[in-house]
Amino acid sequence: MQQREEKQLEASVESLISRVAHVKNALLSFIYKLENEYERLTWPSVLDNFALLSGQLNTINKLLKNEKTPSFRNQVIIPLLLSPDRDEDLAKLTEQRVPVFSHEIVPDYLRTKPDPEVEEQEKQLSAEAARIGPEVAQKQIQTLNKLCSNLLEKLNNPRDDRDAESAAIRQNKPSFNPADTNALVGAVAFGKGLSKCRPPGPVAPGHPGQGPMMSGGPTLQQVTIGGGSGQQAGMGGPVAPQQQGQSGKMPSSIKTNIKSASGSMHPYNR
């Protein structure tokens, strides 16, 4: 009887190792595609890989739940030899993942219970779940279902509908003011709304270029007559001397300042 159980256990272990190898190969193939063929990888292909892995895991679960499979929980693994030296046979058997079977790694590989910290966190979560009443839990479930439904509805909407909605939003909310744009174009192109000359004011003698500006010619002449009110001459030839206005009075001296209009003088400058 005992020999029969041992043979059955060996056959179950070999079958389990074979199934796990299939899962490992499928994972390696999927990871290779994600790392090297991501540009050509399509979503249906990704779903096919997930379906393959899911089917292989379900097969392992069915194998473990089979009546002919002995309960692995009742089997105890006891390390017979621990050594800090490298074991080539062990490294080859584990594909170089476990080269040494020492006191440091045995507790991790032969552990049958979670870590103490993980176990403590599980207890806290179980206690918090027990404190939540049925009504509160039902409300949370309904809220989560509503959020999931809204998310699925948005994902299932056609892309054209979303593009049309975005276009409608952009048309209804312009990002500029047409009146301001037209006013700016008119001011830059035609000088619309800009002042064409400086406001009139007194002219200080000896300071050329501070009188009213005149447009339309290449030069600007300014004449200041001492002893009387300032008179300005326009563009043209030289300024003729002023005739004697009254007998017995000599004409006052005339001071003429001529300044060429530079390229920076513009009729719209202020």
Provide a quick synopsis of the model.
By secondary structure, the chain is mainly alpha-helical.
Account of the protein in words:
With 270 residues, the protein is mainly alpha-helical. Helices cover 50% and strands 5% of the residues. It contains 8 helices and 2 strands; from the N terminus they run H-H-H-H-H-H-H-H-E-E. It has a two-stranded antiparallel ribbon. Helix 1 (2-36) packs antiparallel against helix 2 (43-65). The longest helix is centred in the first third of the chain and has 35 residues, at 2-36.
State the secondary-structure class.
mainly alpha
Biggest β-sheet description: 2 strands, antiparallel
Helix content: 40-55%
The helix-strand sequence is HHHHHHHHEE
Cα(first) to Cα(last) distance is 113 Å
Overall pLDDT: 75
β-strand percent reads 5-15%
**What is the number of helices?**
8
Topology:
Layout: H1 2-36, H2 43-65, H3 88-93, H4 106-109, H5 116-131, H6 134-156, H7 159-172, H8 178-190, E1 219-225, E2 254-260
Helix pairs in contact: 1-2
